[in-house]
Each structure stands twice: as C-alpha cells, then as structure tokens.
C-alpha cells in the first residue's frame, strides 16, 4: 500500500511538472463590463441613429471579413432607412446575379431583395485570406455569445499589449476579454477610423457601441414589437384580473 501511495505521489508530481508551462500560460478572462444599451430595459428599443452609424461601421470596416447572411438589404427599413436609401446601398455593391449565356456565374448591382454581400465566395477562400482563421458570420453574433452585447463590445475594446510573460502564437493577437486571450482577428477599430456625418465623435468606444447596437438589431430585429406585445399581454392580464375580482365579489356578495 505504501509503495502504491509513493507511485501515486510521484505520478502527481510528474503531472504537475509537465503541466507547468500550461499553468504559467493560463490567465483569468475577466467578465465583460456592463454597458448602457437602449434596448435592455423592459420598454427599451433600438437607438436608430446609433444603429445607422453602426451599419456604417459594419459597411466600411467589418464587411471586409464578416458576412451577414441572414439579412437582406430590404431589412434595413428596421433601422430607419428609406426605400431610396436602401436602393442606393444595395446598388453600391456587387452580388451574385446568376449565370451568363456560357453558364458562368456573374455578379451585378444589388437590389433591396438581395442578400447582404459576403466578403468571400466560400469558407475555404475566407480561411485562405485570414491565415487559416474563419471570420464568423455576424447575423446572430450578439445572441450566440455569452454576455451578448457586452461581450462583443468588450472584444472590440479588448486589444491591449500582452503581459511580458505571455507567449503569443504566431499570427495571433492578444485580447483581454477573449477566452485564452489569443484571437486571430487583428484590432478592427481605432479612433477616427470612420467619419460620421452627424458630428458624433468617432472614438473607439463610440464606434464599438454603434456597431454592437446594429448587430444587436440584426440578431433581434423584432425586439421592439415583441416587447410591445408583451406589455399589451401584461396589461390585458391585469385588466382581466380586476374584472375577475369584481365578478367574484358580485357573485358571492350574498353568501355569508
């Protein structure tokens, strides 16, 4: 029994020794800081001005690598764009337009019915252009990540120099809020990168807040309508509770 115990202790010591480099590399990932979002409260809805600025950030920066496959250009009415604005946005990009007379795929100007243009024709091309990493589709990114809007905002603002003892792999970037801290995406946004026409400061936090608002809308375009229905149902139930109580008092008034 003592021999088995010694073997167990020796084995545990060896395991700790072998795991030493991995333990040294491990650092705790902090929780994303809580942000103020117009759509978080019970009666909250999307800040359409912020969503429109966020669409500009996506169009000028994020769309170079990330797709929005679940959206069509006509859906942009949800952030307050007019029909003419949507036509102009769609016509400014080239999208698949079927086949020519030789059976070869061709591109043409987008229409409001077109799906958002993807930056790469397929996954293999996307990986080849990004050092093997596959940029995720952003259609549902706010719903798909734990922490939701706060997490996506934290990632955009989490690019900092790595600690001195942190071994960063080749082609990777250090992000304070990304699990493991090594992310294939380089810092996408920097102060002054996008010029807003409405005079809003184009700082990194502001641009991040705007594009996350847009992506939150993309993930939940029916949020405002859903909340309105919920409020109406609650008011109806409160009303029916009052009516039921009054009827009950009336029916049982003569019963002692």
Write the layout of secondary structure elements.
Layout: H1 2-25, H2 48-60, H3 83-91, E1 94-99, E2 105-109, H4 123-129, H5 141-144, H6 148-157, E3 173-174, E4 182-183, H7 204-219, H8 223-251
Antiparallel strand pairs: 1-2, 3-4
Describe, in short, the structure shown:
With about 260 residues, the chain is mostly helical.
Q: Helicity range of the residues?
A: 40-55%
Mean pLDDT: 85
The CATH H-level superfamily of the domain at 2-36 and 46-70 and 135-221 is Cytochrome c-like domain
Order of strands across the widest beta sheet?
1-2
Low-confidence stretches: 1-24
- SS-derived structural category: mainly alpha
CATH architecture grouping of the domain at 2-36 and 46-70 and 135-221: Orthogonal Bundle
N-to-C series of helices and strands: HHHEEHHHEEHH
Secondary structure: number of strands: 4
Q: How much β-strand is present in the residues?
A: 5-15%
Q: Alpha-carbon distance between the termini?
A: 80 Å
CATH topology of the domain at 2-36 and 46-70 and 135-221: Cytochrome Bc1 Complex, Chain D, domain 2
**Largest pleated sheet:** 2 strands, antiparallel
Rg for CA atoms: 26 Å
Number of helices: 8
CATH class of the domain at 2-36 and 46-70 and 135-221: Mainly Alpha
The best one-word shape is: globular
Describe this protein's structure.
The protein is mostly helical and 256 residues long. It has a domain at 2-36 and 46-70 and 135-221: Orthogonal Bundle (Cytochrome Bc1 Complex, Chain D, domain 2), CATH 1.10.760.10. It contains 8 helices and 4 strands, in the order αααββαααββαα. The strands form 2 sheets. It has a two-stranded antiparallel ribbon with strand order 1-2. The longest helix is centred in the last third of the chain and has 29 residues, at 223-251. The radius of gyration is 26 Å and the shape is globular. The model is unreliable at 1-24 (pLDDT under 50).
């Amino acid at each position: 029994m003592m021999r088995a115990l010694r073997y167990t202790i020796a084995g545990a010591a060896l395991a700790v020794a072998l795991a030493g480099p991995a333990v040294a590399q491990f650092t705790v990932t902090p929780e994303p800081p809580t942000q103020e979002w117009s759509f978080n409260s019970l009666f909250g809805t999307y800040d359409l001005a912020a969503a429109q600025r966020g669409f500009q950030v996506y169009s000028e920066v994020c769309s170079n690598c990330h797709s929005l496959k679940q959206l069509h250009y006509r859906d942009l009415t949800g952030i307050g764009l007019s029909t003419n604005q949507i036509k102009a946005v769609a016509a400014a990009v080239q999208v698949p337009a079927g086949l020519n007379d030789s059976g070869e795929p061709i591109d043409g100007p987008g229409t409001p019915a077109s799906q958002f243009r993807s930056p790469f024709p397929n996954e293999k091309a996307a990986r080849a252009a990004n050092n093997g990493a596959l940029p995720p589709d952003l259609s549902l990114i706010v719903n798909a990540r734990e922490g939701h809007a706060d997490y996506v905002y934290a990632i955009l603002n989490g690019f900092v120099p790595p600690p001195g003892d942190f071994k960063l792999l080749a082609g990777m970037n250090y992000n304070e809020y990304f699990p493991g801290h090594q992310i294939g995406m380089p810092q996408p946004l920097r102060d002054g990168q996008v010029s807003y026409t409405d005079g809003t400061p184009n700082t990194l936090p502001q641009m991040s807040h705007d594009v996350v608002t847009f992506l939150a809308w993309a993930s939940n375009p029916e949020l405002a309508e859903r909340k309105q229905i919920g409020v109406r149902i609650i008011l109806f139930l409160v009303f029916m509770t009052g009516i039921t109580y009054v009827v009950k008092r009336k029916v049982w008034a003569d019963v002692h």
